[in-house]
Write a structure and sequence with these properties.
Elements: H1 14-26, H2 28-31, H3 37-54, H4 68-73, H5 76-86, H6 94-117, H7 124-145, H8 160-194, H9 207-269, H10 273-287, E1 292-298, E2 305-313, E3 316-324, H11 333-339, H12 353-379, H13 385-391, H14 397-416
Antiparallel strand pairs: 1-2, 2-3
Helix pairs in contact: 1-3, 3-5, 5-6, 6-9, 7-9, 8-9
Length: 433
């Protein structure tokens, strides 16, 4: 959002410095992600330094007690929160990003605290949402200090329905405020085009009155956006904390592997009796013959016995020799089960695409042939004379004679069953209807 304009020509004035700093934050080219992130961060950090030097706490508790130039500077904490969120950090270093997000939340809360202290600045519902978020965050901080402390059941939290209702209500408020801001900005542009003096009025507002109303509406809009940024930043913090914990777990596992390797190396280089005895035990265990198994199965068709000799090597079964009364061997049941473990759970194709295409082609040809045969048979079937004339078959004497018999039967049926003879309910009911 564009910063409010100032009428001063002094570039060192607080309003001019404020406008320059906000212009950097609003510049999409300077704050967007690109290869030149260092230059972007330098520009944003300079804006942060400028805004920090201009920040001050409001002296009055009423909106009427604050001067028009000071109203514009009340939004400095909000813009500082935006600036820290725009700082680019290394994707492999979530700690820096978490630090920036936490700092931005503190600035947004500071701005909302200013809005709460000044009466008649924001609506009461904005103050209630701010206090609710503040209570939730304070309880979360206390739980972090106590390492959980068993207070999770009493912790305040917002349900999905409550969050949705808050977002809907906030969207409606923001829409109304943005409409008023656009109207006031349009009046400001018209005053510039018409080159009106400061004391001249337009739609009942002079220059200072217009700027004051515009500053107030922007502060109200910033308050709504601060609530949104706090909620979204809290969600981002949860993901960052999870990423940091996962990174710490990976580092600890790597350190454990390294320490285990060093201990093994140290034990191998030391010539103590324990190590030598362990070497002897290891050598003896390696010289032991592997466990051997003989699987005996029976052929279900012939009833003859099948033998399969195997040994266990490195935890797996390996065949070392096979023999049977008939020379026929079968796989053991364990191997058969293992082969079916990783079979897909869906039906596999039973034919190739070429086979399916050939079947479809043969069926289509068969349907075409049967359709032609049916049409040829229907062509010489007896039917009404009008249909024979339409089909050009009126010269076929045999077909005309058969069709005439069909017409006579139809006419006889119509004489025997006159139209309306089947209506047996005609004498019942009220005849007036």
């Amino acid at each position: 959002m564009a910063p409010a304009t100032t009428n001063t020509h002094d570039e060192s004035s607080p309003q001019a410095l404020f406008a320059k700093a906000i212009a950097v934050l609003n510049d999409e080219d300077a704050t967007s992600s690109s290869n030149n992130n260092n230059n972007n961060n330098d520009a944003i950090k300079k804006s942060i330094e400028t805004l920090t030097s201009l920040s001050h706490k409001p002296r009055g508790t009423s909106l009427d007690d604050i001067s028009t130039p000071s109203l514009q500077l009340l939004s400095i904490p909000y813009h500082l929160g935006r600036a820290h969120l725009k700082l680019c950090t290394d994707v492999h270093d979530p700690t820096s990003r978490r630090r920036n997000v936490r700092t931005s939340i503190e600035y947004f809360l500071q701005f909302l605290r200013y809005c709460e202290e000044i009466s008649d600045l924001v609506e009461e519902i904005v103050v209630r949402e701010y206090r609710l978020l503040l209570d939730i965050m304070e309880e979360e901080d206390e739980e972090d200090d106590d390492d959980g402390g068993g207070r999770g059941n009493q912790r305040k939290s917002l349900s999905a329905g409550q969050i949705r209702e808050m977002k809907i209500s906030r969207y409606g408020r923001k829409k109304k405020i943005m409409a008023r801001v656009e109207k006031l900005e349009g009046l400001e542009e018209r005053r510039k085009r018409l080159d009106l003096q400061e004391e001249e009025e337009m739609e009942g507002l002079d220059g200072e009155g217009l700027r004051r109303d515009l500053f107030v509406e922007r502060l109200r809009l910033y308050a709504e956006e601060s609530l949104e940024e706090i909620q979204s930043s809290k969600s981002e913090l949860e993901m960052l904390n999870m990423a940091i914990q996962m990174e710490a777990m990976r580092n600890s596992s790597k350190n454990n592997h390294v320490s285990d390797g060093r201990m093994l190396h140290h034990a191998a280089t030391n010539g103590n009796t324990d190590t030598s005895s362990s070497k002897i035990d290891t050598t003896q265990s390696s010289n032991r013959p592997p466990l051997q198994l003989t699987q005996i199965t029976q052929d279900p068709t012939t009833g003859q016995l099948n033998f399969q000799k195997q040994q266990i090597t490195n935890g797996t079964l390996q065949s070392i020799g096979m023999g049977s009364a008939t020379g026929i061997t079968t796989q053991i049941q364990r191997q058969q089960i293992a082969e079916t473990v990783f079979r897909p759970g869906w039906n596999l194709p039973t034919m190739s695409l070429d086979e399916l295409a050939q079947i479809e082609r043969d069926e289509a040809i068969a349907r075409s042939v049967s359709q032609k045969e049916a049409e040829a048979e229907a062509k010489f079937m007896p039917r009404r004379y009008e249909q024979l004339v339409r089909d050009g078959m009126e010269d076929d004497a045999d077909l005309v004679e058969k069709s005439a018999v069909l017409d006579r039967r139809w006419d006889d049926w119509k004489e025997e069953n006159p139209r309306g003879s089947g209506n047996k309910m005609g004498e019942r009911g009220d005849r007036n209807f």
